[in-house]
Amino acid sequence: MSENFLHHMQGFLFDLDGVFYVDEQSIPGGAATIAHLEMRQIPYRFVTNNTCKSLDALHKKLVGIGLPARREQIFTSRHAGVMYLRQLGKPRCFLLVPDEIRPEFAEFPQDDKNPEVVVIGDLGEHWTYALLNKAFGMIMAGAQLLALHKNKYWQTAQGLRMDVGAFIVGLEYITGKTAVVVGKPAVTYFDMALKDIGLKAERVAMIGDDIEADIAGAQEAGMKGILVKTGKYRPELIARSPVRADLVIESVASLQGLV
User: Fold this and answer.
1) Rounded to the nearest 5°, which phi and psi values hold at 98?
2) pLDDT of residue 24
3) Please, which residues bridge with residue 44 across strands?
4) Which of 39, 37, 65, 98 is nearest to 256 (CA)?
5) Could you tell me if 35 and 5 are in contact, meaning their C-beta atoms sit under 8 angstroms apart?
6) Which residues are paired to 156 by β-bridges?
7) In this structure, are residues 201 and 220 in contact, taking their beta carbons and an 8 Å threshold?
8) Nearest CA among 39, 41, 54, 67 for reference residue 252
9) Looking at the domain covering 3-77+184-257, what would its CATH class be?
């Protein structure tokens, strides 16, 4: 598809991991692209399914690679998770999330025996059979399963690594229950960022490296989806997907030559 649609875009949403950096290595051109948008006074937000780092740590990382980001420009799937839990009132929660982000859920009572909601984020290499079995028992006893995202895999300096989506799908399979997913590609998550940026979906494009969470999710929300050939991008994986990006670019650096 032609990039002509970019002339009608008034704002952008950016994924972080795989678009601006991989692990601790920044992807060239990211800071220059954001500086270009700033110069042209084009609004943007960062939207991420990252559930490993606190908001302060994410902000520090972006500033560290030269992005003039403000904390309030960063939307994580935890924002959406907290908002969803608030709609339930003050549900008792069992948190399967890293210690670093547990304070973001401090307003909800924690219960490791009979919770109303099991909240799952990234635990990296700390996943164990015992933890999964405990979550299984709680869900079978009536707890709701809340997934902060359902990503299949993510890119590291050592290559692709499986993500928490495998555990979410597994728990759904063995319990017969469907998880509530609040991160990308949930439309409600994108709507949160669109409301903050103050633009209609058809005037905003999403830039990401995940054909499903970023591109399909954005298109479902009414936005255009721009896929970068960095991060988890793999031609063979894209070829197998029924999703088609509105535009494919080499990297986030390419955007500054198009807008």
Assistant:
1) -65, 150
2) 83
3) 12
4) 37
5) no
6) 159
7) no
8) 67
9) alpha beta
**Tell me: the pLDDT tens digits for 57-88?**
999 999 998 888 899 999 999 989 999 999 99
Q: 41: Cβ–Cβ under 8 A, 6 or more apart, which residues?
A: none
Q: At what angle do helices 129-140 and 165-175 cross, to 10 degrees?
A: 40
Q: What is the DSSP string of 176-191?
A: --PPEE-STT-HHHHH
Residues in the chain: 259
C-alpha distances in angstroms, 232 versus 12, 96, 198? 20, 25, 30
Bridge-based pairing state of the strands 11-14 and 204-208: parallel
Q: Among residues 82, 29, 35, which one has the least CA distance to residue 55?
A: 82
Q: Where are the alpha helices (DSSP H) in 96-186?
A: 129-140, 165-175
- Distance CA(217)–CA(197), nearest Å, equals 17
Domain borders along the chain are 3-77+184-257, 89-181
One-letter amino acid identity for 131? Answer: L
Could you report the per-residue pLDDT of 162-180, keeping only the tens digit for each? 889 999 999 999 999 999 9
- For the domain spanning 89-181, the CATH number is 3.40.50.1000
**Dihedral sign from CA coordinates of 187, 6, 42, 19:** positive
